[in-house]
Specification:
Blueprint lengths: L2 E4 L1 H13 L4 H13 L9 E2 L8 E4 L4 E8 L4 E9 H4 L1
Parallel strand pairs: 1-5
Antiparallel strand pairs: 2-3, 3-4, 4-5
């Protein structure tokens, strides 16, 4: 089971995001639980980013919204970085 780390910066971004998108909170919570249990589950669509974001990964909340993460596999630690639409987090 992976450990999720919520930084202050991430919490501020998430609070602002959910103020504008309260309808996806349940999907978000389900995504976090699945990420914690099995970060490689196919429904998360975990993938490494490229270009200026080459050091981070992304998982999908749904077709429109993503969570970007720093995924440290060796230590089973996942640091949440950002949440938002595709254009907001990339």
């Amino acid at each position: 089971m992976a450990k999720l780390i919520f930084t202050e910066s991430y919490n501020r971004k998430a609070k602002k995001f959910f103020k504008h998108h309260p309808q996806i909170i349940k999907q978000y919570e389900k995504t976090l639980k699945l990420l914690e249990i099995n970060p490689f589950h196919s429904s998360l669509r975990l993938h490494k980013l490229a270009g200026k974001h080459a050091d981070i990964y992304s998982v999908s909340i749904n077709i429109s919204y993503r969570i970007t993460i720093d995924f440290i596999i060796e230590k089973d630690t996942i640091i949440l970085i950002d949440v938002g639409s595709h254009s907001e987090v990339y």
